[in-house]
Prior knowledge:
Elements: H1 4-23, H2 35-49, E1 58-64, H3 67-76, H4 83-89, E2 94-101, E3 104-110, E4 116-122, H5 137-144, H6 151-154, E5 155-165, E6 168-179, E7 182-191, E8 194-204, H7 209-214
Antiparallel strand pairs: 1-2, 2-3, 3-4, 4-8, 5-6, 6-7, 7-8
Amino acid sequence: MNNLPVVFWVILAIVGLLLFIKFKPPTIASLLLSKDEAKEISVQFIREFVGIDVENWDFYSVYWYDHDTVNKLHHLGILKKNRTVLYNIGLVEAWRVRFVHQNQSFVVGVNANREITFFYADVPKKSLSGKFEQVSPEALKQRLMVSPDGLWSRANMTGSGKKEEDFHEVSTYWYIAEAGDIRLKVTVELQGGRISYIGTEQEILTDQMSKVIRD
């Protein structure tokens, strides 16, 4: 008889655990790629779009997220609403990968969808003066697109231009991508058909931004 209370509490604990497992709140799993995946994607991107093999260059990587945009969304009370969007377009759960060799470097941004969302080439101009085929803005977008939910699937061309820089022709393509309450202005620069820069400017689609800035 004295063992009945013990048995009762053991059964109750087991039932409680099973109920917790069944009805626990859903969690959002991390979508962050592994460091090795981010490196491999970056190596392949540079090989394809710049024509340089950085496989054996010194390699550095850091976790990256857009602190400013996340902060503003939090103050507006719409961070939770846009969380999946932030993952998909690479403003959170992303890597900044850097390759360095003999005073040359490349920095690559890779998002959770395995897309390139940032790129900067710090190399001599002659390294980017090859005879790559010049692609149209739409064709380039298609080549960069990886996920139907990602940045490049949402990007629409808004314009293009050309300029002479150090006796080399530089082409610039501009895109706009909107997702949730966020608009991204995307700039891509190419020299001799090789990509030298990809960058974004973020804008939150709200009329309350002046209040957020004051706060």
